[in-house]
Write a structure and sequence with these properties.
The chain has 154 residues and is α/β, with parallel strands linked by helices. It has a single domain (5-153), classed as Rossmann fold, CATH 3.40.50.2300. Helix content is 43%, strand content 16%. It has helices at 13-25, 38-46, 74-83, 101-109, 122-139, 147-153, and strands spanning 5-9, 32-35, 60-65, 92-96, 114-117. It has a five-stranded parallel β-sheet with strand order 2-1-3-4-5, with helices on both faces. Helix 1 packs across helix 5 (122-139) and helix 2 runs parallel beside helix 3.
Length: 154
């Protein structure tokens, strides 16, 4: 699982730390790229701004997306991901503290692959991250990781 990059889009330093700790505790050693607002996440994904020169072969295996973000909120990030041919098939897991029905419906309506509410308890959160890692990084096969797909989309 080492070569599969995770893009974590999280503005809360405590939640970022907890997510990274939970990944490490579950022996998920993938590189985690952290974007701390929606604009930074889009810059990374579309190779603009400070990420204009990044390696185009670095494609996240999964995006862990918070909804309440500064600059550009998570739902708008999701909308833009799905609207662009280069990222429309990228697996996006909404990982948020929101349990609002509107957020759940809107996330799926915009094409989220999964919606996970962050458990308040660290042990529950660690278990959720373990299951998330096992599925999205080990079991799931994503066309975005395929070199053929990436070449067709350029």
């Amino acid at each position: 699982m080492k070569d599969k990059v995770i893009l974590l889009v999280e503005d809360n330093p405590d939640d970022e730390m907890l997510t990274l700790r939970a990944l490490k505790r579950n022996h998920i050693v993938n590189e985690v790229i952290v974007a701390r607002d929606g604009a930074e996440a889009l810059d990374f994904l579309f190779m603009t701004g400070e990420y204009a020169d990044r390696d185009p072969d670095i494609v996240p295996q999964v995006v862990l997306l918070d909804l309440r973000l500064p600059k550009i909120d998570g739902l708008e990030v999701l909308r833009r991901i799905r609207a662009d041919r280069r990222t429309r098939l990228l697996p996006v897991v909404v990982l948020t503290s929101s349990d609002e029905e509107r957020d759940i419906v809107d996330s799926y309506d915009l094409g989220a692959n999964s919606y996970i509410r962050k458990p308040v308890d660290f042990e529950q959160f660690t278990q959720a991250v373990r299951q998330l890692g096992l599925y999205w990084l080990l079991l799931n096969k994503s066309p975005v990781q395929s070199r053929l797909y990436r070449e067709m989309e350029r």
